[in-house]
Every structure is written in structure tokens, then in C-alpha cells.
Amino acid sequence: MLQMNRVSKPPEPRFSLSRLRELAPGIALCLAVTLVSIGLQHVEEAAFEHPYIEALVIAILLGMAIRTFWAPSPVWRSGIAFSAKQLLEVAVMLLGASISFAAIVASGPVLLAAIVATVAVTIAASFAISRLLGLAVRISILIACGNSICGNSAIAAVAPVIGADSDDVASSISFTAILGVLMVLGLPLLIPLLGLGAGQYGILAGLTVYAVPQVLAATVPAGLVATQIGTLVKLVRVLMLGPVVVGLSLLAPRFNATAAEAAGARRFDPFKLVPWFIVGFLVLAAFRSLGLVPDVAVGPITRVAGTLTVVSMAALGLGVDVRVIGRVGGRVTAAVTLSLVLLLLISLGLIHLLRLG
Fold first, then answer.
1. How far apart are CA 249 and CA 262, in angstroms?
2. CA 352 to chain centre
3. What pLDDT, on a 0 to 100 scale, did the predictor assign at position 230?
């Protein structure tokens, strides 16, 4: 009788009020960590003019520090997981609005070829180095993409495509971030050591330094010409993130045998080959290139994407078990360091071989 009187409830909407209440505590915690991280970056900018450690890195390190002393209960976990995945996917999609394909044309064919070759070769070599050191496939891909394209941003963009977990992301970002700061401080020493001109040094900085703000910090000591060239090269290098992420999304099932079997059992669906946020990224990039995204909108969209990325990194940090990082720390450090040295050598070789700058 009880079963006969039971009335089936309609399914709740995906973003119902109850769902929002479930997510709210974790999202609020991630936002709090984000605000602190952005505040610390502003302190850096006031003291040094450029942030040597970006809010994105501060957020993940602060989240890891909190997680070390406090394990989130189920009340917090849903919002933290949502921030780490869905908000990151939205951030990646929004980045497409800041990309104009006109930058590729402006860089010139020889320099463009050098940038593409550098990214392609260093991705393959960095991945091989990481695998030879015994690292898993996913973290090897993260290190390779972070080292070859744009550091933390590339790692954050690639992670959801290949299904990397928070420990892999935190490990690769943490050690990449440390070497990124060392690059900013140490790269200007190569100017007198190797007799580099302003143009050559700008190209070298654009090819090797991880983040755009770090390129600015590394090239300012060399003058305006180095800064302009370094920024242009860096932006073109960042454009490689789109094709790389799309390619990885097509290969993603191969990283997981179970996923590959499941994909083979399903009927072929071309719309599921590429994640929705990558499609959105490419659409927004096309709109930007066609002038359909006005210049006045690019700044706010980019700031929203950057803030969402910081929120996602805070969430990743809050979900990290530091003991896991400790177990792979030595190998990750070696992989990132060797990959960076290789990137420097390849970049210097191309600059002299092609007489760039």
C-alpha cells in the first residue's frame, strides 16, 4: 500500500535552489582564498611593479596549506569540486575572446615557424623526459604543456581535457611556478653572458618564460624593444594552446583504457569528440578575429576568465593531499628542470640558426 501511494517526484533541475545551497559553502571558501591571493598579488605589484608570484599560484599554495591542517567535510566538497572543474572549463572558454588570429600574421613567417617548432619539439621532448623519469602519462602531459606553452595557464587548460586529478595539477603547477620565478630573476643574466641584443633577448624571453606578466618582468631590464618583442612572441606562443588542447581532446580516450573501451562501445558522435568549452574557446576566438567581440569587452571578459581560473586553482589546492606531492616531488622537479633547460637550449639554437632578432 505504501508503494501504491508513493508519488514519483520529477527530477530536479541541474541548477535548482537546493543544488545552489549544496554548492555555496565550497564556492564561498574558494572565493575567500581567491580574494586573499589577489590581495597578495596587489601587494607584490605595489612593491615590485610586477607580480613575481601570480595570484593563481598563491591560490593553489594557500589552498594546499589550508588542506594540510583541515580536511573539508562533505558540506564543503561539492562546491570545491564544482569550482575545480566547471568553473575552470568556463574560464578556458572565455579565454578565446582575448585571442585574435591577426597576431599570427603580424609575427612574420620565420618567427612564427620558430615558435611553432619550439612548442612542438619541447612538448614531445618534455613528455619523453617525464616518462623516462617514471612519471605517469597525465602529469607528464601537464609538465610538457606547461613548460612548452604558458606555464600554469596551459596546465590549468589541459587538466580537464585529459582528466588529470588535483594532485597532478598541484604538483606540476607548484614546481613550474618555482622555476618560473627563477627564470624571471636569472634570465637577464644571459644578456651580457651570451652577448644578446635587445631583439634576441626579447625572443628568448618570449619563448622560454612561462607567463605574460613574467615576460614583462624579465624583459623590462633589457629595454622597451625587448619588452615589445618578448610580449609579441609570448602571445603567439600562447595561441598554440588552442590547437594543442583540441589535439589532446581527440586523443584523451587513449590515456585511459577504460574510457577508450567505453568510447568504442558507444555510437560515434562527432559532437562529443571535443569538449564543449574547447568549442566555445574556438568560437569566441573566431568572433574576436572577425571583430564580433568589441575591444571594450575583451578586458572585462579576460578579467572574469582570470578570476575564475584563480578560484579553480584555490579549489584544486583545497583538494590536494600534500603527501602525494611529496612522493613524486623529486621526479617532478627533475622533469620540470630538465625540460626548462632543454627549452632554453632549443630557443637559443633557433635564435642563432635563423638569425632572429
1. 16
2. 29
3. 83
At 272, the pLDDT band (50, 70, 90 cuts) reads very low
Longest dimension (CA), the chain: 89
93 and 215 Cβ atoms separated by less than 8 Å = no
| E strand or H helix that includes residue 186 | helix 166-186
Q: Tell me which residue of 345, 22, 49, 56 sits closest to 208, measured CA to CA.
A: 345
CB of 57 closer than 8 Å to CB of 244: no
How many structural domains compose the chain? 1
- pLDDT given for residue 32 in this prediction: 94
Between CA 113 and CA 353 the distance in angstroms is: 13
Report helix, strand or coil for 166: helix
C-alpha cell at position 180 = 618560473
The answer to whether residue 4 is domain-embedded is: no
The helix-helix angle for 166-186 and 137-145 (nearest 10°) equals: 30
For the record, the C-alpha cell of 62 comes out as: 594557500
| Structural domain boundaries, residue 263 | 23-353
Q: In terms of Cα–Cα distance, which of 89, 88, 95 is closest to 277?
A: 89
From the list 115, 119, 140, the residue with the least C-alpha distance to 129 is: 140
Q: Has residue 110 been placed in a domain?
A: yes
